Amino acid sequence: MTHRPHPGTHTPTAGIAHLTGLTGPLIPLVIYAARRRGDAFAASEAVKAANFSFALVTVLILAVAVRTYVPLVGFLGTLALWVVPVAAIYFSLAGFWLARQGSPAHYPFQLKVVKTHD
User: Fold this and answer.
1) What local confidence, expressed as pLDDT, does residue 10 receive?
2) How far are the Cα atoms of 58, 68, 85 from residue 15, in angstroms, in the given order?
3) How far, in Å, CA of 115 to CA of 33, rounded?
C-alpha cells in the first residue's frame, strides 16, 4: 500500500530537513519554525530530523568522552566515532527518500528534545 501525500504538503522541504539533520539540529529547527503553521507534514518531519540530530550529537560527545577518559575500553569510543556517522548518513538518506515520497520517516532512536502537540 502506498501513502499519498496530503494536498498542500511540501515534500521537498521535508526531505531537505532530513538531509540537513546531518549538519546538526539548527537547520531542521529553522525549517520547523518556518513550516509549523502552514505545512504539518514538513514541520513533523523537521522535528523528527532535529530530534535525531540531537541524539547523534549526544552519542558523539559520549563517544569522545569514553575514548578520552576511560582506559581499557576507549576503543569503544573510537568504534562509535566510525559507526555513528555511517549510520547517521544511512538513516538521514532513508528519511529523505521517504519524506520525498510523502511517507512519514521513522528513526530507530531519538531524543525527544523538540516536542509537538501532535
Assistant:
1) 77
2) 23, 36, 19
3) 12
**Segments in the chain forming alpha helices (H):** 11-20, 26-35, 40-69, 74-101
> Which residues have a Cβ under 8 Å from the Cβ of 31 and sit 6 or more positions away?
13, 16, 17, 20, 42, 43, 46, 49
Q: Which three cell numbers stand for residue 44?
A: 513533523
CA 61 to CA 52: how far, in whole Å? 14
Q: How many residues does the chain have?
A: 118
Helices 74-101 + 40-69 axis angle, to 10: 170
pLDDT classification of 112: cutoffs 50, 70, 90: confident
Phi, psi of 41 (to 5 degrees): -65, -50
Rounded to the nearest angstrom, the gap between the alpha carbon of residue 108 and the centroid of all alpha carbons in its chain is 10
* Residue 56 and residue 108 in contact, taking contact as beta carbons nearer than 8 Å: no
Average pLDDT over the chain, rounded to an integer: 88
pTM across the whole model: 0.86
pLDDT of residue 9: 67
